[in-house]
Design a protein that fits this description.
- There is one protein chain.
- By secondary structure, the protein is α+β, with helices and mostly antiparallel strands.
- It has one domain: Winged helix-like DNA-binding domain superfamily/Winged helix DNA-binding domain (Arc Repressor Mutant, subunit A).
- Helix content is 56%, strand content 14%.
- It contains 4 helices and 2 strands.
- It has a two-stranded antiparallel sheet with strand order 1-2.
- A hairpin with a 2-residue loop joins strand 1 and strand 2.
- The protein is elongated, with a radius of gyration of 17 Å.
- The two termini are 33 Å apart.
Length: 112
């Protein structure tokens, strides 16, 4: 379960960076390590490919030091997704980390 949660956080983090500038796999691995994620190519590349297939990232192959490096940037759909998820992340962080907001879950409407 922890892995599933962290994969969601990583995808948001990747999208955040891809909105601001082109990103590539090994740089993202290092960036995520800076934030405590211990991932390798077997994790990052399937995430990038999946986000590309879903239409949130677009790939640009560039020749760097004699090798092709795959750079990813956010598509308009990726930008919109990040804009949609940001307030949800902020609210979640406020409630879970800062412990602001409701301390309980309200009962269903039929039990009020």
């Amino acid at each position: 379960m922890l892995r599933e949660f962290l994969l969601g956080f990583m995808k948001i983090h990747i999208l955040h960076h891809a909105v601001h500038d082109a990103v590539y796999g090994s740089a993202l691995i290092e960036e995520l390590k800076r934030h405590g994620y211990d991932i390798g190519p077997g994790t990052i590349y399937p995430i990038l490919h999946g986000m590309e297939r879903a239409g949130y990232l677009v790939r640009d192959d560039r020749l760097v030091a004699g090798k092709i490096r795959k750079y990813y940037t956010a598509t308009p759909a990726g930008v919109m997704l990040l804009e949609e998820v940001r307030p949800k992340v902020a609210e979640l962080v406020s409630e879970v980390v800062v412990e602001n907001g409701p301390a309980h879950i309200a009962p269903p409407d039929n039990q009020l």
